[in-house]
Amino acid sequence: MNQLVFVVNDRPVTDSLTVATVFGKTHDKVLRDIRELGCSEQFRLSNFGESSYTNKQGREMPKYIMTEQGFTLLVMGYTGPRAMEFKERYIAEFERMRKELQTRHMVEQFNLPRNYPEALRALAAAAEEAEKMRQQLEEQAPKVALYDVAMQAHNSMTVGTVAKELGIGPNKLFAFLREKKVLMSSSGARWNLPYQEYIDAGYFEVRQYTITHKQSGIENKSQTLVTAKGLDFIHRLLRKHGCLQETQAVTVGER
């Protein structure tokens, strides 16, 4: 006997030929039963589909494809010594096919291995991907740490803090920035202040504050602060001139 339930358009179905064979009826009788069901047109369109097959004489003949709901309505009135047995068999087959389709969908959706060799290949691929991820995290660790420092600084930190995070002495960093004409080198009130072009570029901010001396009174002071954008600028400038170790040679602040 042919398979009772099969799949059409991703749905478990059977057909009128199979029902006729299983229940010991002529195909003409089953076709007539379907046409005379008296169900709504909507139900008929949803659960019965006209199809065809080629008989032994080579002629194309009509048949119906039906869903589980269509089958249930059709055979509801079928009786006989073995009718109940056939109905139970069909019900079990529809249930088995539903589970098979669910498993197939899960395999396709999550790309699950279907057999032992596929499982081994999937395991090897996962291990390789995990190793790549570990290497990427190690390579990006300095970048992530430095970027976090910039974000936590709320776009303003002292040059000394920048020097500490970049692993270079503060005096050396000040001297480097003066040499590269980023900070002013003239003595007096403008010592170590950034040139205006770098302030305009958003790399630095200058904070004004006052100090009160008991004897000389109030003194106005200026402090150079580095923005997150400026941290990236200084980092790239140091790297360009070979002033950072290779482990620190990463680009930060790109968002």
What does this structure look like?
- There is one protein chain.
- Helix 1 packs across helix 2 (27-35) and helix 7 packs across helix 8 (170-179).
- Helices cover 52% and strands 18% of the residues.
- The protein has two domains: 6-110, no CATH class; 140-248, no CATH class.
- The chain starts with 5 loop residues before the first strand and ends in a 15-residue tail after the last helix.
- The chain is α+β, with helices and mostly antiparallel strands and 255 residues long.
- Strand 3 (48-54) and strand 4 form a beta hairpin.
- It has helices at residues 16-23, 27-35, 41-47, 68-75, 83-110, 116-152, 159-166, 170-179, 196-200, 228-240; strands spanning 6-8, 11-15, 48-54, 60-67, 157-158, 204-213, 217-226.
Distance between termini?
66 Å
Mean pLDDT across every amino acid position: 81
Instruction: Give the fraction of residues assigned to helices.
Output: 40-55%
Strand proportion, as a percent range, falls in 15-25%
Q: Which overall shape is indicated by the principal axes computed on the Cα atoms?
A: rod-shaped
Number of domains: 2
The strands making up the biggest β-sheet line up spatially as: 1-2-4-3
Number of helices: 10
Secondary-structure content class: alpha+beta
Largest sheet: 4 strands, antiparallel
Which regions have little confidence, pLDDT < 50, spanning 5+ residues? 246-255
Radius of gyration, in Å, reads 40 Å
Q: Give the ordered list of helices and strands.
A: EEHHHEEHHHEHHHEEH
Number of E-state strands: 7
